[in-house]
């Protein structure tokens, strides 16, 4: 895409966010304008040097293919997923060179550090990428991150499943995290379950109220946390900016979101090494995803976006028609897969969160599967098969869920409780 068109599209996208978010988004945007304008000016000023370099790079392409890519680090989910996918693609096709740069705003500085150990990430690549996009015909040298692709950071081809790659922690990094865990009473070998429950404190510098349908009340998760803690697991509530601390006296439950020693390294390490990640569908679960940890998505919407490529179980929020009070069918869930809260309101749909009992039952089901204690009956296997048969016949669903992990699926608890959902 030509940079002028790209700048135009970014302006239109920003205007849309301002319209949705109001004054807080406008102020936040204005604060960032000088820095971003300075970057664009530097991009243009460097063209007399960067254009000849790009011409040379295109000439030598038959001999040595050089590609340019970038990562948006402002949202941890896209940042983690897109960098992991790029590293896997680079390993699968090692010919030539892959050069990257980070866009402004990094959500987790330690992840950026780990990425730089594996990938060639330099600021000056931005100048070459800009020149390459300025001159027509540079598509073969451009790497588009998942964030800006039609399926937005999804592993539709199962690259993660078919690869053994992962960003590695140094011994010092691991020992640093374990030292922190030891201060909480954790002992070597004890298993950890992470919880990330998104609430309305998410990204407070912006007005993301149009995403409120993705939020949940962490208090409804406490019974499940205590269940796991009573089973011997260390339960860690994740998050950088959360609304309120969790209220529990259990010594094996750590409210890491409010821990005075919280840092980016511990954030990454816990999600990468947990026995299970329980999430409402938010950025940190991408870390567990790329490290191939089991995931349980609760209160998840839209359900067409479930992680079919990973060991992930989904239990969606319940959608009811306001007029009839009936639960939407799977087909209706797909037809009404919205990313804006007001769209559900406009089409007369009530969004109902899972009860503490439903959350606890689903958590128990998933942890027993992990422990090898869950006995799957023929009925349960048939329910899961029926779900995939129905889901993959829906074009809106199948277009973004092409590779299916053998352990991916819908919660059996949900399917049993709603026997007519697939009809």
Note the main sheet.
Answer: 7 strands, parallel
- The share of residues in helices is 40-55%
Tell me the distance between the termini. 43 Å
N-to-C SSE string, H for helix and E for strand: HHHEHEHEHEHEHEEHEHEEEHHEHHHEH
Radius of gyration: 23 Å
In terms of structural class, how would the helical and strand content be classed?
alpha/beta
Q: Record the strand order, biggest sheet.
A: 7-6-5-8-9-10-13
Beta content: 5-15%
Number of helices: 16
Low-confidence stretches: none
Average of the residue pLDDT scores: 91
Strand runs, count: 13
Report the principal-axis shape: globular
Task: Provide a concise account of the structure shown.
The chain has 423 residues and is an alpha/beta fold.
Question: What can you tell me about this protein's structure?
Answer:
It is a single chain. This protein has helices at residues 3-21, 23-45, 47-59, 76-92, 109-118, 125-134, 171-183, 222-230, 264-273, 285-290, 330-335, 341-346, 356-371, 378-391, 395-398, 412-417; strands at 66-71, 97-102, 120-121, 142-143, 192-196, 234-237, 253-255, 276-279, 295-300, 312-316, 318-321, 349-352, 409-410. By secondary structure, the protein is of the alpha/beta class. Strands 7-6-5-8-9-10-13 form a seven-stranded parallel sheet, with helices on both faces. Strands 3-2-1-4 form a four-stranded parallel sheet, with helices on both faces. Helix 1 (3-21) packs antiparallel against helix 2.
């Amino acid at each position: 895409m030509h940079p002028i068109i790209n700048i135009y599209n970014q302006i239109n996208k920003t205007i849309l966010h301002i319209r949705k978010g109001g004054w807080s988004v406008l102020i936040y945007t204005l604060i960032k304008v000088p820095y971003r304008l300075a970057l664009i000016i530097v991009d243009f000023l460097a063209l007399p040097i960067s254009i000849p370099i790009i011409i040379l790079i295109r000439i030598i392409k038959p001999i040595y293919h050089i590609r340019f890519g970038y990562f948006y680090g402002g949202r941890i989910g896209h940042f983690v997923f897109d960098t992991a996918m790029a590293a896997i693609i680079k390993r699968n096709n090692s010919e030539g060179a892959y050069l990257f740069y980070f866009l402004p705003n990094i959500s987790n500085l330690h992840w950026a550090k780990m990425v730089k150990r594996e990938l060639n990430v330099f600021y000056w690549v931005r100048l070459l990428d800009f020149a390459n996009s300025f001159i027509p015909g540079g598509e073969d040298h451009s790497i588009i991150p998942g964030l800006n692709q039609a399926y937005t950071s999804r592993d539709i081809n199962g690259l993660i499943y078919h690869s053994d790659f992962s960003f590695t922690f140094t011994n010092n990094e691991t020992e640093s995290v374990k030292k922190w865990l030891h201060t909480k009473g954790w002992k070597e070998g004890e298993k950890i379950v992470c919880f990330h429950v998104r609430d309305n404190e998410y990204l407070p510098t912006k007005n993301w109220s149009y995403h409120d349908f993705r939020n949940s009340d962490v208090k409804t998760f406490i019974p499940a946390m205590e269940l796991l803690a009573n089973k011997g697991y260390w339960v860690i509530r994740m998050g950088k900016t959360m609304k309120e601390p969790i209220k529990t006296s259990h010594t094996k439950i750590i409210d890491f979101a409010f821990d005075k020693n919280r840092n980016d390294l511990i954030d990454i390490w816990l999600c990468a090494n947990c026995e299970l990640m329980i999430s409402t569908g938010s950025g940190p679960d991408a870390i567990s995803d790329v490290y191939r940890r089991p995931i349980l998505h609760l209160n998840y919407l839209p359900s067409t976006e479930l992680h079919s490529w990973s060991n992930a179980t989904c239990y969606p929020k319940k959608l009811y028609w306001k007029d009839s009070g009936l639960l939407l069918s799977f087909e209706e869930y797909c037809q009404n897969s919205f990313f804006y809260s007001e769209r559900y309101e406009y089409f007369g749909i009530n969004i109902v969160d899972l009860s503490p009992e439903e959350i606890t039952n689903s958590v128990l089901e998933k942890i027993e599967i992990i422990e090898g204690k869950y006995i799957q009956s023929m009925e349960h296997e048939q329910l899961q098969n029926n779900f995939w048969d129905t889901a993959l016949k829906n074009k809106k669903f199948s277009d973004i869920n092409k590779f299916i992990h053998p352990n991916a699926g819908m919660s059996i608890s949900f399917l049993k409780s709603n026997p007519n959902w697939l009809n």
